[in-house]
Amino acid sequence: MIIKAANKIRSSEITSEDVFLKRRELLQAAGLALGATTAAMLPGAGIAASGDGPEGQKLDGVTAWADSTSEKQTPWAQATSYNNFYELGTDKTDPQKNASRLITEPWSVEVNGECAKPGKYTLEDILKPHALEERVYRLRCVEAWSMVIPWVGFPLSDLLKRFEPNGNARYVQFQTLHDPQRLPGQQYPVLQWPYVEGLRMDEAMHPLTLMAAGMYGRVLPNQSGAPLRLVVPWKYGFKSIKSIVRISFTETQPDTSWNLSAPREYGFYSNVNPTVSHPRWSQAKERRLDGDGKGLAALFAEKQETQMFNGYAEEVAGLYSDLDLTKNF
Ligand code: MTE
Fold this sequence. Notes:
Layout: H1 11-14, H2 17-29, H3 36-40, E1 63-64, H4 76-79, H5 94-97, E2 108-113, E3 119-122, H6 123-127, E4 133-140, E5 145-155, H7 156-162, E6 171-176, E7 196-200, H8 201-204, E8 210-215, E9 218-219, E10 229-231, E11 244-250, H9 257-261, E12 285-288, H10 296-299, E13 304-305, H11 313-316
Parallel strand pairs: 1-4, 2-11, 5-12
Antiparallel strand pairs: 2-3, 4-5, 5-8, 6-7, 6-11, 8-9, 8-10, 12-13
The structure holds ligand MTE.
């Protein structure tokens, strides 16, 4: 997606990232636009394929979670150079390029709504009581690619309990920092800013739902959502909101950015479901970004079947036993 002046963006362009990518991939595959720059945008290309190791501050005392997937991990370099973080640009390589704009110190999180302990908490307040765990999760993007990433964090439930949500708290909403200087993509109306996401309370309290502060044993790089982001592994990646500054307990279903932008395409639940197509493409298969297949080869890597709830059905299917998942997509 190319950023244009605000008044020149048509609404039809706003959510057509996938279509744009397909068109670009086709052009590139046909050899029509294969300059150095465009080749570097391909998954698995450029820095992504260099095999560079993790960078940034090391996290100490991280224990390994017993249920991590043993599937081949996405290399650090690929996971940090092929990102969706529209506040840092809409091309996959933009978030890494613009990462230094996001100053994350100091950082605080406002907690409000239906709970006994609302307030403004510093990042240290948030992190301190929690032991860090490494959990290797699959993350499946709505655009039909997926990664396997060793996140470092703690169960979101442990954090939310500290704020003592009351009986009216049926949902929880999360909000990303709103600061067009530090997140320059917010100068363009690609989405309604700030980015917001939400979960039903039982989803938020589910033991798989992670509040991540790191990956690959290091603090989160900015493009990956520093200093705090959600990872909800059974849902499409856009539910895993980055750079969180507000947590609100609500009685009614909260707004979410992609649902506001295109309600027919992005529902509140957005559980990974190979049997329910996106209106513009199938969700049955995905391309795993695991460092294999550099440059153009990555485009032709064989796709694999997408699993129900991204392979976490045993753990989470029970949350949705009363829901028609074709209607509540
Ligand atoms: N959070 C914010 N604030 N802004 C975004 O644009 N993109 C989402 C999600 N969280 C996004 C966000 C999408 S579409 C995906 S797929 C994941 O972040 C990507 O996470 P990754 O770049 O670490 O792989």
